[in-house]
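Methods, example record. To illustrate the input and output format used throughout this study, we show the complete record for Phosphate acyltransferase. The sequence lines were provided to the predictor; the line carrying structure tokens was produced by it.
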Amino acid sequence: MPNDKPRIAVDAMGGDFGPHIVVPAAVKAAREGVAITLVGDEDSIRKELAANSAGGLDIDVVHTTQIVEMEDKPADALRRKRDSSIQVACRLVREGKADGVVSAGNSGATVACGMFVLGRIKGVQRPALASVMPTEKNPVVLIDVGANVDSKPSHLLQFGLMADVLSRDVLGVEKPTVGLLSIGEEEGKGNAMVKDSFDLFRSSDLNFIGNVEGRDIFTGDVDVVVCDGFVGNIALKLSEGLAGSMNKIMKRELKSSLLSKLGAMLSMRAFKRFKKVVDYAEYGGAPLLGLKGLAVVCHGKSNPKAMTNAILMAATFVTNKAHEHLAAGLDAHQSLSNGAGSGEHNSAA
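The corresponding predicted structure is encoded as:
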């Protein structure tokens, strides 16, 4: 591309709040050196740009006439809404007019557009969603968190290979440790798919440490945790719900007595640090890995901070050539993946 800066196509109409949240977030990312293409209703976008003093920033606008609603089915969105903001944003990446796409819209439609508009990297059996989650130490990559509810051992191996690159190139981990999510740490624990996957991981070049349990995800002792999308999505939603409930419980208890209120005042800085650690907005969104272009899927209720961080994550992915490293890693393990069989039971969440 003519511009050295990564250019990210942002679905301005996506999410529960649309341009009102997305545009200010994109403006902030542009101030930090990312070239932005906002895709959606031009009048609405221009109005928000004017309100956020975006003059002089590297921001383009591409007008579209349709919006994929949260209740739309992915297949219908692909067929009947070809001029939707998410589909047009993906086409910009496919045509080389952008390096990646970020959307907080209908996640099923975003995954579908990614798979059918961008297409898969050669050799990729199933693209996967990778979520970056907080831990006691450094962030962990959990993959897959919902793109595939039925997976094969070869799929899980590829998920691990792709998440390994994300951990290296985006999170800066030199040699990520990789664990397979199971019901016990010992070899031989888990269902048939996990047991077969264990052997594949052990034969790979990954820094595989064996099985890990659900409780190990948040210790920070493993950098990448691999599972199928059904289990991963439950783990992700459980974590989000627990973090939200803990905040509410803490606030309730700290207001329960005068002594508690005094203690809360003295501990305010610690509570702010805690809130930052468990805040999903620190990491922005979940990259859909394995495509011919980068797509980052964000929570529908994402605030400006989450959207900005998602855009910055996408830009880092592009700048560090993670896409090339990912393709190379998959190619190096092609015989191992193919030998395990690809399977045909996929379902986008």
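Annotations derived from this record:
The chain has two domains: 1-124+290-321, 135-280.
The chain has 13 helices and eleven strands.
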